[in-house]
Design brief:
The complex is a heterotrimer of chains A (136), B (125) and C (293).
Chain A (H helix, E strand, L loop, with lengths): L5 E6 L2 H18 L3 H22 L2 E10 L2 E10 L7 H5 L13 H7 L2 E7 L3 E9 L3
Chain B lengths: L5 E5 L2 E5 L6 H17 L4 E5 L8 H16 L3 E5 L3 H9 L8 E3 L2 H10 L9
Helix pairs in contact in B: 1-2
Chain C lengths: L2 H13 L1 H13 L2 H4 L2 H22 L13 H17 L3 H22 L7 H41 L4 E4 L2 E7 L4 H18 L3 E8 L5 H16 L3 E5 L3 H9 L8 E3 L2 H11 L16
Parallel strand pairs in C: 2-3, 3-4, 4-5
Antiparallel strand pairs in C: 1-2
The chains are: A alpha+beta (136), B alpha/beta (125), C alpha/beta (293).
């Protein structure tokens, strides 16, 4: 049976956030990421999925297993047609006090993953791509 | 769907056992359940057993902090017990310190902390 | 290039195999390392023969271009092994690449000889030979380098593990004496190792001693603070010892809330705090009591 190398999950309700976590956990664990890295990836996905529910109302997560030569990675892209992020640079800046409930937690997500790319346009939507590579 | 969340009274403390991947509904029920039980029984505080929890995002962390604050307002103490290393690392990297919440390595130690109270100067983070 | 022509190129090799081998070996036999070593001479002769035989076999398929194809697998395997044997003999990869290059030249020289009456074919034919041998040489070098890099990576990991010890100095007290630079991969390893140790031993105090760490950059300081936060989340108390002025500056400039972080100038002082925290006291043995034998 050929294994799935990519897929997507619609995100609209908090139940979908759990679905995202479950799916990402399944993929990351199957690929062989360490327990800690699985926790990192799942948490990052949970944060971004929650942002969609909270700020955009609805969106989608597209997941892909990356294979580059001998490297294996997991790529997650979160897309929504929400209001967009006014100042991406500001949102990505490392805040001194964290976990106070403000903002989107993007700096935290960046720390958990290896690569992160944010594209956003006011009134059009947001696209956030995160990648983590398997460390041999 | 509320997964296997349980809140029971053990001696004079509440022991809340949290499932591995609680959804928002479960977390809400956790908060409500703890506050109601605090009202019903005369307990010193709450031990939240998170040894089964595999993921903690900022929402969950905030919920815990809020619950601890509410318990404190009702005159009790909260101790989080059994955080997994992978969860601790991820939470720390996210920049969440769970300030104002006691933590313990397991439920037994957590009970000890509540029993002795915080007069021994065991620092809150 | 037509199949008939490819066959012709290969036939030149087949027909002159022994002469080519003899000439090829003579190019290396004068090397000091081979001269008084009959065993090495014999191995070189055998391996050279195997190389040519495998090359003929692979090229007989008619495929002179694609060395990733299955018909070239035995030859590539042989070359990978040969590269390692050469290393064991004390030769360099450069020397092996040069050796293969000499074979290429010899084959082409025999080709020129055989095609005396069809000289116009020589350029095209020699290019085919050159391309094939070059590809094989590059593949051999590339695989050898990949193997070396893998070894280096494994060694680096081993070094990291060995230099990140966690020691349970007393029941409930774990210490981590760090020495050297604390870079990101090491800091991450430290976090995982330390936390696992705390959970396994149910320690209540962790002393992280950084006396032996000269400087750390902002990123690493952040990792250190994250480690301390993670340990506290497990319910253990952290004592940071041996903080040098430069590091103190870096940490303060991060602007993190440092309340609740206990620090001491030395590991010994930190140990004293740890004992106190656990409600333990170190007392001198009563000197007045003596054992009467």
């Amino acid at each position: 049976m050929k294994e799935q190398e990519k897929g997507s999950i619609q995100i609209e309700t908090s139940t979908d956030i759990v679905r995202v976590r479950r799916k990402v956990r399944e993929i990351a664990t199957t690929l062989g990421f360490s327990i800690t890295d699985v926790a990192r990836i799942v948490t990052a996905a949970s944060e971004l999925a929650r942002n969609i529910v909270q700020f955009a109302g609805s969106g989608v997560m597209q997941w892909t297993i990356l294979r580059r030569n001998e490297l294996i990675g997991i790529q997650l892209i979160f897309v929504d047609k929400g209001p967009g992020i006014p100042d991406v640079e500001l949102a990505m800046r490392e805040g001194y006090s964290s976990g106070n409930g403000l903002g989107m937690g993007l700096p935290g997500v960046k720390k958990l993953m290896d690569e992160m790319e944010v594209k956003s346009k006011i009134g059009k939507g947001t696209k956030i791509k995160i990648i983590k590579w398997l460390r041999k | 769907m509320t997964e296997n969340l349980s809140i029971i009274k053990v001696e004079d403390v509440l022991l809340a056992t949290i499932p591995s991947d609680p959804d928002d509904e479960t977390i809400a029920k956790l908060q409500d359940g703890i506050l109601e039980s605090m009202k019903k029984y005369k307990v010193k505080g709450v031990v939240m057993d998170i040894s089964a929890v595999e993921t903690m995002d900022s929402y969950f962390a905030r919920a815990i902090m809020e619950t601890a604050q509410m318990v404190s307002l009702m005159g009790g103490e909260t101790v989080i017990a059994g955080m997994r290393p992978s969860v601790a690392i991820t939470t720390a990297q996210l920049g969440l310190t769970l300030k104002g919440v006691h933590t313990a390595i397991d439920v037994e130690s957590a009970m000890e902390i509540l029993r002795k109270g915080s007069q021994e100067g065991r620092e809150k983070k | 290039m037509k199949n008939k022509q490819k066959k012709e190129v290969l036939n030149i090799l087949k027909k002159n195999k022994n002469k080519i081998l003899k000439k090829w070996l003579s190019s290396i036999i004068d090397d000091l390392r081979v001269q008084d070593n009959p065993e090495l001479k014999r191995e070189l002769k055998e391996n050279s023969q195997d190389f040519v035989d495998l090359l003929i076999k692979s090229a007989s398929s008619g495929n002179f271009e694609n060395i990733d194809a299955p018909e070239y697998k035995p030859l590539i395997s042989f070359l990978d092994n040969y590269a390692e044997i050469w290393k064991d003999w004390g030769f360099t990869l450069f020397e092996l690449a040069s050796h293969l290059s000499i074979f290429k030249e010899i084959w082409i020289s025999f080709l020129v000889n055989e095609l005396k009456d069809k000289i116009h074919l020589v350029p095209e034919y020699s290019v085919v030979i050159a391309k094939l041998l070059d590809k094989l040489t590059f593949m051999m070098l590339s695989n050898a380098i990949k193997r070396r890099e893998k070894v280096i990576a494994q060694q680096s990991e081993h070094i990291m593990e060995v230099s990140t010890p966690t020691i349970e100095v007393w029941e409930g007290i774990v210490t981590v004496p760090l020495v050297g630079t604390l870079d990101t991969p090491r800091a991450q390893l430290l976090m995982e190792v330390l936390l696992k140790h705390i959970v396994d031993t149910k320690s209540s105090v962790a002393i992280i001693d950084i006396t032996g760490v000269p400087t750390i950059d902002t990123r690493t300081a952040q990792h250190l603070i994250e480690t301390i936060t993670a340990v506290k989340l497990l319910g253990a108390q952290v004592i940071l010892t041996g903080v040098r002025p430069e590091i103190a500056q870096t940490i303060v400039h991060l602007g993190i809330d440092l309340s609740g972080l206990i620090t001491r100038s030395s590991l010994a002082a930190g140990l004293r705090v740890a004992f106190d925290y656990l409600g333990l006291k170190v007392v001198k043995k009563d000197e007045s009591k003596e054992e009467k034998i």
